[in-house]
Amino acid sequence: MCRVTQIRKGIFYHRAYLRALIFVGLLGFCSSVFSQEYKQIVVATGSPFELGLLSALAEAFQAKYGGVVRCVKTPTGPGLDLGRNALAHITMGHEKEATQKFVDEGNAARRVELMHNYTLVVGPADDPAKIAGLTNLEEAHRRIFSAKASYLSRGDGGGMNMLELKTWEALGLDPQPENWYEVSNIFMLASLRHADKSGQYHMLDSSTWTLHRSEIKGLKLLVKGPPNQYEMCLVSISKHPNLKYNEDMAEKFYDFLISNEGQKIIADFGIEQYGEPVYYPNVIENPK
User: Fold this and answer.
1) 72 contact partners, CB below 8 Å, separation of at least 6
2) Spatial distance between the Cα atoms of 199 and 214, rounded to a whole number of angstroms
3) C-alpha–C-alpha distance, residues 118 and 207, integer Å
4) Quick check: 16 pLDDT over 50?
5) pLDDT value of position 157
6) Does residue 155 sit in helix, strand or coil?
7) Cα 280 from chain centroid?
8) In terms of DSSP H, where are the helices of 66-120?
9) Which residues in the chain belong to E strands, given as ranges?
10) How many percent of the chain have pLDDT more than 90?
11) C-beta of residue 182 within 8 angstroms of C-beta of residue 150
């Protein structure tokens, strides 16, 4: 079983508070099996952990190599900040520009497009903004703005939130002062449930929708947009030497995820239960 630490609130705004939260979490890592507990790494990611994929990957890795894979649930931006502060060995997120900045700063020893899902917009069945069937996110958001239709933004610094803000910016529109525009400041699944309860348009990834659409009663899938690419970074030991103590394990886990074995776990995850993939591997398209 993958042992996890979830950071649900607070990490989005104050880096000092983030440090304190993670430090307290790390103090809780101690156990009676002392030597095994030192053989551990920390992975910072969001939906892949929340939806169970990281646990499936970690369990397979630990069965083969031992050690402990720790997971910190965090949106993309704060997850990259964990890497910047040497509080994670591996980051996994889906905002290309933010990840590129992370790399340009020298924080990543290795970087790869690991997998993808798709960007969706869901909304009420009567669809007052008339966006059903669109594939263009900008046009969908332009119509939502024109209709002044109720919309929920995550506002949590995650990759989907960053994409939403870029979409408004590209349109030259600012929904922030509008009373139909609400910011949840909570993660993807919790935001989806909030939007469902309130009958709001909401942008999310296809993985979250696939796993939880059966419980969503008031919203329909209206827009299937472009692929949503998840990138994985191995945090640089040269820049952050305090992470060297488990450098070998971090490299092994990174290599495991891009191997045929890891890519097959990604490709197969959720198919038996949901009848379709939850994520699509990028490194090996058809792993055996």
Assistant:
1) 4, 5, 6, 7, 22, 25, 42, 43, 44, 45, 79, 82, 87, 88
2) 16
3) 8
4) no
5) 87
6) coil
7) 14
8) 76-84, 96-104
9) 4-6, 40-45, 68-73, 90-93, 108-124, 151-153, 181-183, 201-205, 219-235, 280-281
10) 83
11) yes
Query: pLDDT class for 158, splitting at 50, 70, 90?
Result: confident
151 is written with which tokens?
């919309």
Q: Which two tokens stand for residue 32?
A: 């009676």
How far is 103 from 232, CA to CA, in rounded Å? 11
Say if residues 203 and 121 touch (Cβ distance below 8 Å): yes
The pLDDT of 74-93, averaged and rounded, is: 96
Res. 190: pLDDT tops 80: yes
Q: Is 218 helix (H, G, I), strand (E, B) or coil?
A: coil
pLDDT (average), residues 213-239? 97
From CA 222, how far away is CA 284, in angstroms rounded?
30
Nearest CA among 122, 94, 107 for reference residue 212: 122
The answer to whether the beta carbons of residues 158 and 98 sit under 8 Å apart is no
For the chain, domains (ranges, CATH) are: 4-116+230-281 (3.40.190.10), 118-228 (3.40.190.10)
Contacts of 163 (CB under 8 A, 6+ apart): 95, 119, 137, 203
Residue-level pLDDT at 29 = 40
pTM: 0.83
Torsion of CA 280, 71, 87, 96, to 10 degrees: 20
- The burial class, CB within 10 Å (0-12 / 13-18 / 19+), for 112 is middle
Among 76, 80, 77, 59, smallest CA distance to 68 is for: 59
- Between CA 84 and CA 94 the distance in angstroms is 17
Angstrom CA distances, 73 to 42, 49, 79, 88, 221, stand at 11, 6, 8, 11, 26
